[in-house]
From TrEMBL:
Claim: DNA-binding is one of the keywords in the record: no
InterPro entries assigned to the protein according to its UniProt record, in alphabetical order: CBS_dom (IPR000644), CBS_dom_sf (IPR046342), Diverse_CBS-Domain (IPR051257)
Pfam families named among the record's database cross-references: CBS
Coiled coil: none
Domain of life of the organism encoding this protein: Bacteria
Name of the protein: CBS domain-containing protein
Membrane-spanning parts: none
Entry annotated with the keyword Protein biosynthesis: no
Domain (CBS) ranges: 11-69, 86-139
Species of origin: Flavobacterium cucumis
Keywords of the record: CBS domain
Length: 139
């Protein structure tokens, strides 16, 4: 297996993201439309948080049954903002961070995605799914 491969080679570069001012209804629609589980939250293109689909499920079980449902029940979502629900204490990595280092961070933490940043600017995201796909390609 290659030793010093940077995460920039496997990270998602065209990141689906939310603005801090977006609502949770938009977040759920993005999760479902793009079949993803993590969305970075930005303010003026700077990362300020990470919202996971699990974060939404914690406040509403209404949509846990049918992921393909296009209609979103916004009653519960109107009670919270993205900022209230998102994770704010982020661990981010640079594009030069090795895949091994990213895997070590994710294996020790209780989250499954890392924003990839140059300074405060979001340039990508890497998830445990990206790491598993990379491992599969190696064999």
């Amino acid at each position: 297996m290659k030793q010093k491969v940077p995460v920039s080679t496997i990270m998602t570069k065209n990141v689906v993201k939310l603005n801090l001012s977006d609502d949770l209804t938009k977040a759920e629609m993005l999760f479902k439309k793009h079949h993803i589980r993590h969305i970075p939250v930005v303010y003026s293109n700077k990362i300020v948080g990470m919202l996971s689909y699990t974060d939404l499920l914690r406040i509403s079980f209404a949509d846990a049954i049918d992921d393909d449902e296009e209609i979103v029940d916004t009653t519960v979502y109107n009670m919270f903002t993205v900022e209230q629900v998102m994770a704010k204490k982020l661990v981010s990595i640079s594009p030069e961070t090795t895949i091994k280092e990213a895997a070590e961070i994710l294996s020790q933490k209780e989250f499954h995605a890392l924003p990839v940043c140059e300074g405060e600017l979001l340039v990508g995201i890497i998830t445990t799914t990206d790491l598993i796909k990379y491992l599969i390609e190696q064999y």
